[in-house]
Amino acid sequence: MNEGEEHPLFTRFTGNALNEQYLLRTYRNGLFYGDDKTSQDQAQRKLKQSVVAISGLAGAGGAVALRLAQLGVGKLKLADDRLVTMMSLGRQLGSGREHIGSSIADSLAREIGRYAPEVEVDSYSSGINLVNAESFVGGCDLIIDQTRHGDWAGKIALHRAFRHQQRAQFILSCSSLGWSVILYKFARTGMKLEDWLGVRGVEELTPEMVRRLLNMIHPGSPNLPSIGDFEEWISRNQLLPLHAGVTPVAEGLLVTRALLILLGFEGVDRFEELPAIPTLYCYDASTFSGFYYESEGPL
Q: What pTM does this model have?
């Protein structure tokens, strides 16, 4: 990967030419992509031609970016306006103590270059906003929204740009709550983020908004704190509680679902389709249980 080339809205880290390292790195995946060598090679080529955008990189989003690069996705677009901090290192891959104070997006782009130098990465280190959202989603096959809760302006700009383009049909997201992760999907022509969350513009993460979010995504798992306990902790600390132990679980769910969508396998034969919002899927790592549940919108 070559060092970043500045563009008006992003920095481009150009990938190197495809080489034997790419083929060796992705070789053992092929058996799961088809019944014969021809279909397996076609699937890997499809991944090499794929473009995935990921907004929000401090937790599972960054881990997903690294994994998709290792699996052979040809181009990634990464967006996050935050800097690396000691607190973010508790859940973030792709950065170390030497990166504290640096852009999360740029640091991750360079780390991807170490693992998968043939991947092209566009880094949007100013995050997502009304100015760059269409550029960010343009030409993408899939969008992954891990934008932090509270950045409603960024989330709304991302989803509106997604609905205006034609190529990507889905946005994937995954939220962590204690021992549980909640996976969900927005379809381009389905329920809108704004209608589901009940937000219309730039809003602060008020206690009422926190209560609304928790009521919508709390799956009722027995080993989770109550909604009241969540509210009390958030009010006291002015932060959302996160358990870094389940970040790899969120990464696994997002990566495998992203591969199924990119390869056109989702909903085909024995590959189950993830329903779009308002249906959510919860996996509770403390009980080894997974289940669907419904969230029609703000209560």
A: 0.91
